[in-house]
Amino acid sequence: MAVESAAVPPEQITRILFEDFAPAAVTLFYLIGFAAIGAFLWGCWVQVRKYRRGQPAPEAAGDLAGRFLRMAGTVLSHRTVERRDPAAGRAHRLIFYGFALLFIGTSIITLQEDILGALFGVKFWYGGFYLWSSLVLDLAGVALIAGLVYMMIRRGWIRPPKLDYARPDRQPGDPDYDRSAYRREDWAFLWTLVIIGLTGFVLEAARLVWLQDRPGVWSTRNWSPVGAALAEAMRAGGLSAGAAGLLRSGLWWFHGLLALAFIALVPRTKVKHIFTAMGSLMVRDPLAAQRLPKLPDDAQDAAAGASAAVGYAKITDLTWKHLLNLDACTKCGRCHEACPARAGGAPLSPRDLILSLREHSNRTLESTLIPGEADLDIHGGRVGQISSETLWSCRTCMACVEICPVAVEHVPIIVQMRRKLVEDGEMDPLLQKTLQTIHKTGNSFGESRRKRGGWAKALPFPVKDARKEPVDVLWFVGDYASFDPRNQKVTQAFARLLHAAGVDFGILYDGESNAGNDVRRVGEEGLYEHLAGSNIAALGAASFKRIVTTDPHSLNTIRNEYPQFGGAWTVSHYTSFLLELVNQGRLKIDARHAYRATYHDPCHLGRFNKEFDAPRELLRRTGCELVDMARSRDNSFCCGAGGGRIWIPDPVGKEKPAQIRVREAAQIEGLELFVVACPKDLTMFEDAVKTTGFEGKIVVKELLELIEECVVAQQVEEVAAA
Amino acid sequence: MKILVPVKRVAALEDDFRIRDDGLDVEDEYLSFDLNEWDTFALEQAMLIKEAATAQAGAAVEVVAVTIGPDDADEVLRACLAKGADRAIRVWADAITGSDPIAIARILAAVARRESPGLIFAGAQSADQGHAMTGVALAALLDWPHVAVVTALDYGAGQDRANATRELEGGVLQDVDVACPAVLTIQLGINKPRYASLRAIKQAAAKPIETPTLSELGIGADAIGPAGSASRVRRVYIPEKGRAQLIEGSAAEKAARLAQIIREYKAA
Fold this sequence. Notes:
The complex is a heterodimer of chains A (722) and B (268).
Chain A: H1 23-52, H2 64-77, H3 86-120, H4 127-158, H5 180-210, H6 225-236, H7 241-265, H8 273-282, H9 297-300, H10 320-328, H11 334-338, H12 340-343, H13 350-365, H14 373-376, H15 388-392, H16 399-403, H17 410-423, H18 429-441, E1 464-465, E2 473-476, H19 479-483, H20 485-500, E3 505-507, H21 517-522, H22 525-541, E4 546-549, H23 552-561, E5 571-573, H24 574-583, E6 596-599, H25 613-621, E7 625-626, H26 657-666, E8 673-676, H27 679-691, E9 699-702, H28 703-710, H29 713-721
Parallel strand pairs in A: 1-3, 2-3, 2-4, 4-5, 6-7, 6-8, 8-9
Helix pairs in contact in A: 1-7, 2-8, 3-4, 4-5, 5-6, 5-7, 8-10, 10-13, 20-29, 24-25
Chain B: E1 2-6, E2 9-13, E3 31-35, H1 37-55, E4 62-68, H2 74-82, E5 87-91, H3 101-115, E6 119-123, H4 134-142, E7 146-154, E8 161-167, E9 173-179, E10 182-186, H5 198-204, H6 214-217, H7 225-228, H8 251-267
Helix pairs in contact in B: 2-5, 3-4
């Protein structure tokens, strides 16, 4: 498109601001504008003051440039917004870019009018630049409105269940049950923006009609195509230039005041997610759920006395980063949808937990003075408080943290709150007993330490004691693999495979204790420190090159959390280790099987440690036909055993997450095998297959068992003979 | 007021174990140790009275845990301190080895005279030896009243009488009104013992444990050990396997086999 009307000097091709306004009207507008900006700034300060009332978050400091670039990349690409909801992602991208461009456009006008123009007489918003910016802003307006209209259709007609704000943690009638205010706010937000956008276009059209006779106005109309089309329609409808001028004056004030009110309300409404989400993404901890926070040193120091707080008891115990997380939540419901506890009817939705805490912090920490201790308590059944049933429902499977588009850390917040419950002894009696047992015996089975390596006696070859002689590979066995009779068979299979491949390996025997991953996720941090310390000492005294484990839970805590306590080793899960052996030619797998199989990603292996491919590759090499479930890889659905839930009885009459998962697998036609790579999964799913009536139809197999069946028998015999 | 809670570090047998060469006990390495379960309920009962008094801003209650045993026994006192006991006392001398429950009660009585508590809560019995004797013997030595096997208690700090409920055989309950000071032996299930977090246990490690000597307590050598005991362990052994057998098979086969066994016995 070429710039027409060469006869008109380019300086005159522009839009004159406040055209035909009385000086008093302009002054009035500026006063209202400053008031709106003042309200905006004051609101921002109130928010910042609220976050400053939290605890320090040292993990959120440092590498500002890197953090900013990663945040900007996430925001600009909309990578996290479009996951598992591409339509909403596209619509949000339209709104985001539309809004951002319109904001930049308005800022450019402000820059000329109130800063460069007013102070230095510099003008640039005319001619070609003006026309191009008109075109871009018109398109931005179209994008904004299109995105908003889709969101209205989504809320009004498509109505995905995750947006209905039904909460599982409160009953109807409870004073805290009603979340309809959020729904009203959502609609108010959408309508306000749509009206601002639409009136902008009508305003543009009215101006074109009003000034149609001025040179350079009507002739350049097509640079704002939407405004031009509307203007044509107005003219065809018989709107005169004079009437258009009146319409423009009225609409100008309406549009302007609405936009200013919107700005003033940003810090007080859901609009603030523009800032809070970006802030939350800036301080994102990529290992938030994998590596839980240590207690501050003063809480560990016994001599410091019992007064130091443990975990989150009051809203002011949250770090400023977690307080910011609460405000970043956009209620998109992805965590609500992904949560296995919620799916099983437990009184927990990660979204509702975050919203309750947000309401609590807004009520107590936005006021000038912080209320008394009693009003800051976040535990209990009153409005804005979280019940212990809700907290104990969590499986710490990380599905919520992983899918959150704005980096909210649900799991660390829940575990911090559980630490307080543990300190007060508010837990299931069986869990209490298990923790005491683990403290006493070092394992959750209450077995004698001396029996830990007992499974090795049944093997035809000795398993080295890594406490007594150096080994290449230190095998950290873990509780379930050591003591559970069903899992012991798998453990022995792994030993035979290592032996067959000629790996120099050993175990710690009774020097090993429960790795503590789940104890830590229960919130018994003192016991975790005790277990981690004891294992780190045992590992430190042994001589080895690397650690291998069959237990994803042990893998996670040794890899990600032991370094916090001074134990840093290379640790691999058996799947990646065996694949290495296969690739080196040390282990030969014959594709003997022809089963139709599905693979369940264990939370701690997949989502936590991003190991999705090695187990699938091994399964493929056994000859099995792999068919993934609808939810797989990072979207894998927890078996329900995590976060210490394996030690807490599930409520009777409600479907367990493992049962939901087996039904999901059963939808695969002709499925024969349900393959797992985690000792707890084996226990949970063998049970679930029985209780869901799929016994005899679907067989649960540990990947190790399938591999052993496919390892050339000769190889085993050769090595055994050597 | 003060509540004294005598506690014991009890042994539990592992699945396989060996009898000591002297035949008087099980080898130590096959034992795991813990605070006697009955004592956790006794301590909890004391803590409930203490907390109720604090909540009502009434008289302050001091809970004192005491045990008789060597250094290792400190761990059960630490558990008591972690759960909120105010002080802990441990009495030991090698000469105490071989004491029977009455000799142990003699030492506890000396501690009680020094502390002069308003109440003593002892576990109804110990999980390893099960004499159910120490608490009652302690009452006799102090010449205090006692209520044994208490399943419910109505008592507020500072009151001079306590109302205790006991469970008799056959499902009959007995309410006993007792004058304080008194010794109550506490049955399982009277309350819900609290959890001591590892952090609390670690913090308790920094608290002092008082260790008065026998002479400080005024106990002579003839009052303790074998010399002060009227009973002694002669032998610990595993009885020969019983003659019980499990009959397997269908209902008809089981019945036939059972009939056969009965006939054999009648004939014998």
